[in-house]
Write a structure and sequence with these properties.
By secondary structure, the chain is mostly helical. The two termini are 22 Å apart. The radius of gyration is 23 Å and the shape is elongated. It has a single domain (18-293), classed as MetI-like fold, CATH 1.10.3720.10. The chain has 13 helices and no strands.
């Protein structure tokens, strides 16, 4: 049975003398975990009075510059930019986790079935997935978001559709190659059912590439969510979301109001960068050529 897991010795070498890829992955992990912790503890910090409620309209203080009371200032509606920037991580993580999970639980089983059965089933699924894959991800998400409407779940579904073919292709190709291995043929000869072969023998041998794809898709999903918010097709206005806040803040730049676009933009960029670095680092770790060097 083949496996691309790193040996214990390889991990010890990485920890003792981390490569540039390992260092970048660590940076990405720190950024990602930081946003995760912010998303989890924002309500608690609000209850302590350390962060304002992002939905509280401060009508007497619109477009207030950063100060002791409002660290990132206020926007044109009077919302506290600091609170909305921090709470924006909640919306981003909720949509990203839902979207990538939905695409994973649909794409992986379809890839396994298609690669194992072959024949007409394989040809039909390949045709469907290739058709979806040829469509631009943002355009497909915009169309679906327009049809489904606003809301966390609807936006997650709209974002997830374009990722299903990616999971399908990766798992299907791995399954096609692994199903010819001797241990699979031996299981078939011993009378193992297709369900048992798929779940016990094939799944565990093709799943190692999924975490890498999951992380990279998460970074892309945040950009698509921001694009939908910028177009007004994402979440409701009162929900803190970086893309929508950037859309509302664009006119402020013409009158010298810089803080309403700077901080949501930095948050969006940092989160995408963190997930991208984490995904690229995982890709290196799961690469057999990299393992041989370490």
């Amino acid at each position: 049975m083949t496996s691309t897991k790193l040996s214990s010795l390889s991990w010890l070498r990485i920890l003792a003398r981390p490569s540039l890829s390992a260092q970048l992955m660590l940076i990405g992990l720190v950024i990602t975990v930081t946003f995760l912790l912010v998303a989890i503890f924002c309500p608690f910090l609000t209850s302590l009075g350390l962060i304002l409620d992002p939905t509280d309209l401060l009508s007497n203080n619109p477009l207030t510059p950063p100060n002791i009371r409002h660290w990132f200032g206020t926007n044109v509606r009077g919302y506290d930019v600091f609170a909305r920037t921090l709470y924006g991580s909640q919306a981003a993580l909720e949509v990203v986790l839902l979207a990538t999970t939905l695409s994973l639980i649909i794409g992986v089983p379809l890839g396994l079935i298609s690669g194992y059965l072959g024949g007409r089933v394989d040809k039909f699924l390949l045709f469907v997935m290739d058709t979806i894959y040829t469509l631009p991800g943002l355009l497909l998400s915009v169309t679906l978001a327009f049809v489904l409407g606003q809301g966390i779940l609807n936006v997650a579904i709209a974002v997830s559709i374009s990722y299903i073919p990616q999971y399908y292709r990766v798992v299907r190709n791995h399954t096609t190659s692994v199903k010819t291995e001797l241990f699979v043929e031996a299981a078939q000869a011993m009378g193992a059912t297709p369900t048992r072969i798929l779940s016990r023998y094939l799944f565990l041998n093709v799943i190692q590439s999924v975490p890498v794809l999951f992380t990279l898709n998460a970074a892309d999903a945040i950009l698509i969510l921001g694009g939908l918010g910028f177009l007004g097709l994402g979440l409701p206005e009162e929900v803190p979301e970086w893309g929508h806040d950037l859309k509302e803040a664009m006119p402020d730049l013409s009158i010298g109001i810089w803080w309403t676009t700077l901080f949501p933009g930095i948050a969006l960029t940092l989160m995408v960068t963190g997930l991208s670095l984490l995904g690229e680092g995982l890709s290196e770790f799961f690469n057999p050529r990299w393992q041989k060097k370490n």
